[in-house]
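Checklist before submission:
- one chain only
- standard amino acids only
- sequence pasted in full

Submission:
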Amino acid sequence: MMQTRTLGRTGPAVSTLGLGAMGMSGAYGATDRTEAIATVHAALDAGVTLIDTADFYGMGHNELLLGEALRGRDRDSYQLSVKFGMQRGPGASFGGQDSRPEAVRNFLAYTLTRLGVDHIDIYRPARLDPAVPIEDTVGAIKEMIDAGYVRHLGLSEVGAETIRRAQAVHPVADLQIEYSLLSRAVEAEVLPTLRELGIGLTAYGVLGRGLISGHWSAGPPRPGDSRGFSPRFAGGNVEHNLALVEALRRIAGAKGCTVAQLAIAWVAAQGPDIVPLVGARTRERLAEALPAAELTLTADDLAEIEQAVPAGAARGDRYPAAFMASLGVGN
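Returned file contents:
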């Protein structure tokens, strides 16, 4: 079975790799519901215990999907990490973050119902709400922890100052933030702050939304695929970024692994306090990703990877400009 890592000083023990479920609800185009549920089952059977979702993935579709997939499973055999508060509109538009205390309680009630569970293991605002002090949001989550509806407090995509303010109200289990060979802004200030305070990190986007999976090729994404709006997938940028992948492919070949496995293992190798989330939406991609949990990278391997893809090597922002403005750290 898969090894575990503990999220910070106060968080739960979770599998070395977690499963990110966003792609199962249309973020990257059409998906197969039966295959998605089978992928969740395969992950659980392989020892993955941490499953990440959000109430706005597919406007509730993802939570309903997971509720179906998890039905009948021992509730103590897995942990649910849930983000809340990102406002959506018809046509999949976005309208900012709502982290008011009354909204926290409302979002949580809907999430518990859709997932069909009596508690959430880690509950976190998806983004910082500029209109609501983080202390108020954390205070509301603390009330839900005290009431037994939530086990741990998490944060997402916030900077060091916000982390410190939240921690002063209630212990933070982990910060969820994008972290990969292409996105390393967290290393400058946020990661040292997390380690100083004893807070874990769950890393999403470890394959750059598929860009460094070893399976992406130049050309526009399919209709309905949100990567069509990503600067890193845009013409002129994607070709540069795929050249970095080819450099990784040579290293992976010598190591006897795939590019995806190498990229995931690199994130895991940055510290035992980091848990990579694998965004697999099919059993095939999951099966490729799982061996990364057992892949050991030597100091020489890490140096070679660093030379091939140094910090800042990616071309293009990780989100469109309107979304970049809501992040606590940059690329």
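Reviewer check: The chain has eleven helices and twelve strands.
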